[in-house]
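Support request, please re-run this one:
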Amino acid sequence: MKLGRAGNFDGRTYTTDGFPHEHLANGAGPLIVGACVGTAMFAFIVAAASYACYRKKTLAALQSPGSYQLQHSLKKNNGYKDGKLNGPGGLVFRKTPAVRSPTGGGSGPILKTSPSPTGSKSPPSVTTSPTQGGRTVLSGPQPHPPLTKPVVQQHKPTPAESPESKIERETMDDEKPMRLGELHYKLRYSTDKQALFVTINKCCNLPPAKDPAAGSSDPYVKLQLLPEKQHKVKTRVVRKTTNPVYDEDFTFYGVTANQAVTGTLHFVVLSFDRYSRDDVIGEVLCPVAELIRGESLHDQEVSFIKEIAPRHFKIKSQGRGELLVSLCHQPAANRLTVVVLKARNLPKVDDSGLCDPYVKMYLLYNGQRIAKKKTHVKKRTVNPVFNESFVFDVPYNEGLHNLSIELLMLDWDRVTKNEVIGRLELGAKVDSGAARQHWTDVCNSPRRQIAEWHKLKE
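Re-run finished. Output below.
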């Protein structure tokens, strides 16, 4: 039955659609209430989640270096007061005073900038005026209080070091004098006894040997009278110190006045090593003529304090020796053969008066090393014989004009760094006349071995 309006025909009340009111009261009412409650809970959860995200982002922004504008906007909206966020658990910021000049002048804000890798540029939209009262005054508007975070001054990052600057820095480091400490000793010469009396007192400020991390050494001093080398003595070893005290006396008998005038005392400071060759710290050369240059100094004790010199000082005084090298160019095969024959009169680097030499060589193309070779080590000799041949491949159709050979004579050491005794470079553009002439002869005489003696240089 279709009804057009509400009515009461059979004792029940009907709606305009023809459904009885009791059906609505019995079933549809709870559903509507549940839907309303669910919708309200969902809206509350979404609002709470949105507020949590907003609060998290706000705290992160406030803790970042660029949070000043955000703080200012929050202060406008009453969301940030006196350095605190409104609401429970708000983040508290301690106010720090503005950076002031050491001179104490003025109370205005000061711009303290850290160095910039791109140059000394001011921050965007901020201009600085000349300093007043020992501080830099901002010329732009300053409506806000100082930043609430302390100013942290950053170090200027070091730019990538170019090869030229690195070479220049290494050269400057090499030119700096190496501090190896001091040697304290006393000398007295007796004309009646023809004896030279030497007292080794102490060493001061020695460097730690081999292991700088240990911070100490086991030093002792060896002494001999040059050039005869007949008198050789040494002190005891003082353990684990860089300032050893010896106070030991030595007497050299049979030293005439003429021998003393031409003689030289050679002190060598070493660090004892139980398992390898003792490490040479440095040396001191003292001409005895300094002691007996006047009659008034005879039979009188004279005290000396001398700087300890590096070991290569001894190499300079003795000379670096000579090297016999043979070269042969084979243009058809694009090869250069280098024969290291022998060396002579090498300096006596070792304490025993010997060394363990070997030769390392490089092939250079336009000054750049492109290949390397080395000989075997010859033990305990200053006149080694190598007789070793090496073949280098020459760049195709280049010839020898842009090539050169660099040879290094080194003293081998099992533990410490191998020391360079001398150096030799052969090529068309080298400074040495003999080396350049040898190279020219090889270029003009292909397929022929040409050998020459060359002096080793520093």
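The domain at 317-455 is CATH 2.60.40.150 (Immunoglobulin-like). The chain has three domains: 1-99, 182-310, 317-455.
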